[in-house]
Write a structure and sequence with these properties.
This protein is α+β, with helices and mostly antiparallel strands. Helix content is 34%, strand content 21%. A five-stranded antiparallel sheet has the order 3-4-5-7-6, with helices on one face. Bound molecules: adenosine-5'-diphosphate and magnesium ion.
Length: 185
């Protein structure tokens, strides 16, 4: 990575003083701050990862599962705040409903429709909303990794002890996915 790709960490991104904002989380690519009333600003460590995520989010802007982009600069993106809890946290405290099971299949169908080669996403990036619909954060390598089925989602369901129940719930409506995923996993 060339040196100029790296963030020198000023206080201002997209014209916003991020030192005034509440920090809500970080991963390997950057830090995320709450931007009241309903947005976040994600500040990346590198221009390259910012650009990659921006391109993905712009590409999927019509999809209900993803956050909309409102502003960006070389190192940051302003997007929707996603309320709710992660799929893993949700399954720790709730049983799997049919609505949520079908949502997970519909998410993967949407990934296919969007031309993703990676038909999977890590559970910490799947947020379950109050109405049991789901939304996604931090899409990465969606067109570079090749993954034919949602192995990470299925293993999250397995660890929560609800995989067989999940398969039963999707069997009728999404029989093709049921057969394919059960066979591959
Ligand atoms: N749009 C969002 N709405 C709500 N929380 C978010 C949002 N984006 C990120 N977060 C929180 O910030 C954390 C880090 O964000 P993420 O995009 O995964 O960063 P990284 O690319 O570094 O992994 C997430 O795990 C989540 O808790
Ligand atoms: Mg992340």
């Amino acid at each position: 990575m060339v040196k100029s790709d790296k963030n020198d960490y000023s206080n201002y991104y997209c014209g916003i003083d991020i030192t005034k904002l509440k920090f809500i989380g970080q991963g390997t690519q950057g830090k995320v701050f709450f931007l009241p009333p309903d947005k976040v600003i994600k500040v990346f460590h590198s221009k390259h990862s910012c650009k990659n995520q921006l391109l993905i989010l712009q590409n999927v802007s019509k999809s209900r599962f993803f956050t909309k982009v409102y502003d960006n600069d070389e190192f940051s993106i302003v997007m929707d705040f996603v309320p709710g809890i992660t799929l893993k946290e949700y399954l720790n405290n709730n049983s799997l409903s049919e609505k949520l099971a079908l949502e997970l299949v519909e998410l993967i169908c949407e990934f296919e429709k969007l031309g993703f080669t990676r038909l999977d996403i890590r559970a910490p990036h799947i947020f379950v909303q109050a109405d049991e619909s789901i939304r996604i954060i931090d899409p990465r390598k969606t067109y570079t990794i090749v993954q034919k089925y949602p192995v990470k989602i299925l293993s999250t369901l397995e660890r929560a002890g609800v995989l067989e129940q999940f398969f039963r719930m999707i069997k009728d409506k999404y029989n093709d996915k049921y057969l394919q995923w059960k066979n591959l996993y």
